[in-house]
Amino acid sequence: MPNILALLTCLTFHIDHTSLKQLGCIIQAMFAISGRVTMLGISRWAGKGGSYRTIQRFCHQPQNWPTLMWVFFRTHCFRLEESYAIAGDEVVTTKSGKHTYGVDWFFSSLTNAPVKGLAFFALSLVGLEKRESYPLRIEQIIKVSNEVNIDSPPPSKVKKRKRGRPKGSKNKDKSQYTLSNELFRIKGMLEALLSTIGDTIALKYLLLDGKFGHHNAAQMTREMGLHLVSKLRHDSALYLPYQGENAKCKYGQKVNPRELGAECLQFISNQGDWCLKYHQLQVLHKEFAQPLNIVVIVKTNGKTGEQSHVILFSTDLSVEAKKLVELYSLRFQIEFNFRDAKQFWGLEDFMNVSQTAVTNMVNLAFFMVNFSQKTLEHFRRNCANDLSILDLKAFYRGFRYLDELIKLLPDKPEAILISQVLNRVTNIGAIHPISVSNIATE
Which of 45, 222, 231, 390 could form a disulfide with 29 if both were Cys (CB 3.0 to 4.6 A apart)? Predict the structure, then answer.
């Protein structure tokens, strides 16, 4: 079985000795816990050295989580031969009450409605070959109240402008862009993450969902030295570059995504009754400063003739269609991080209210996502490849039960009997059985 403290030794120079021991105790309890992952729940499973006051002290002491996550990833998860991209997305967790730091109403895609809770934006590194995501930087989203400009007239008194371009107006410089509060926060997170990574990893792409498929996000990404991979609105007005002799003309024929010619068709795939055609071409958008490399996926039902389409794009004009589609699909790997953090590591359970405690519990949940991936790698190497986090938790829970049972016996049993009991107890509640004899100690 992997030694938890041995895996944490890489953090020795970035966290004090007391907090490191507390973190090891908390991780062991979180692996074994069967109920809600709160401070009280962790203290009930932590055993010696993990009292409620100890857990409370750890949660209320500020920690440098971005550095801890990066050092752990660089030491245990980073593969030199693999390529990586940065993925970013927002996660919302429901919370009740009025005193939790940052609690507000946020739109939740799971419920398709605004919910009361907390929102966080996460940046992770996604491996392009192994298709695994490792969250490295998480920041809480704090809503800022909209300030009313007293100098601007009320909407009822604003005169409606006539259709068309106003007389005497000049062309705007599209290379200039404005940062919203959201983009300003993301840009700061990107700068900090790239500064932390340095020259260790050569990064080229930033993967964001369709919410950021606009000019400001693209310009911000290019300013950071990255290429944006995202999705455009299905009704975006796209134009082919002008090929005529008029030097003043920039935009050519308007693109109809449903009527693209065979010259831009890249490949076709079938999914049941649906036929998917992938078209790639370079287009212009009147809101973007640079040409866009787009892949239009036209989906047609062979029985009903029903059609739909999706427009993926990148600011990198050289990326091929298959790779662009694969890059955008890799963005979804961060959603699995959110699922694990909520289901297993307390992102949906914690009941802390202060800013420091909320930050620590949220970052601890995402740190456990990376830690559990490393631990699962060890188990899968020695056991089955399809082991899950449920199997991992069942193993540590059974180990905890056996440890308490041995304390009640007058004499310590023989090693072979302990091994047999451990094999039976650790597989209670597991989906895939784990053989203790196959697990080597690191």
Answer: 45
In a domain, 246, yes or no: yes
Query: By the 8 A CB rule, do 117 and 93 touch?
Result: yes
Pairing of strands 307-314, 292-301: antiparallel
Residue 152 lies in a domain: no
| Burial profile 382-408: b = 16 or more Cβ within 10 angstroms, e = fewer | ebeeebbbebbbbbbbbbbbbeeeeee
Instruction: Note whether 105 and 241 are same-domain residues.
Output: no
Model confidence pLDDT, tens digit, residues 365-413: 999 999 999 999 888 887 777 888 998 898 888 888 888 888 888 888 8
- Token code pair at residue 163: 């259709």
Which residues contact residue 191 at a Cβ distance below 8 angstroms, ignoring those fewer than 6 apart? 224
117 by DSSP, 3-state: which? strand
What mean pLDDT comes out for the span 65-71? 97
| 49 and 186 within one domain | yes
pLDDT at 176: 73
- 64 and 112 housed in the same domain: yes
DSSP, collapsed to helix, strand or coil, labels residue 392 as helix
Shared-domain flag, residues 122 and 255: no
Q: Is 219 strand, coil or helix?
A: helix
- Do 184 and 289 belong together in one domain? no
In a domain, 25, yes or no: yes
251, 300 Cβ separation under 8 angstroms: no
Residue 55 CB-half CA count within 13 A: 25
Paired sense of beta strands 113-127 and 84-94, if any? antiparallel
Q: 274-285 and 265-271 as β-strands: parallel, antiparallel, unpaired?
A: antiparallel
Distance, in Å, from the CA atom of 246 to the CA atom of 243, rounded to the nearest integer, reads 9
Number of domains in the chain: 3
Question: Do residue 98 and residue 239 come from a single domain?
Answer: no
The secondary structure of 324-361 as a DSSP string is HHHHHHHTTHHHHHHHHHHHTSSTTT----SHHHHHHH
Print the domain residue range for 128: 4-144+178-208+331-382
Residues 337 and 317 in one domain: no
Q: What pTM was estimated for this model as a whole?
A: 0.89
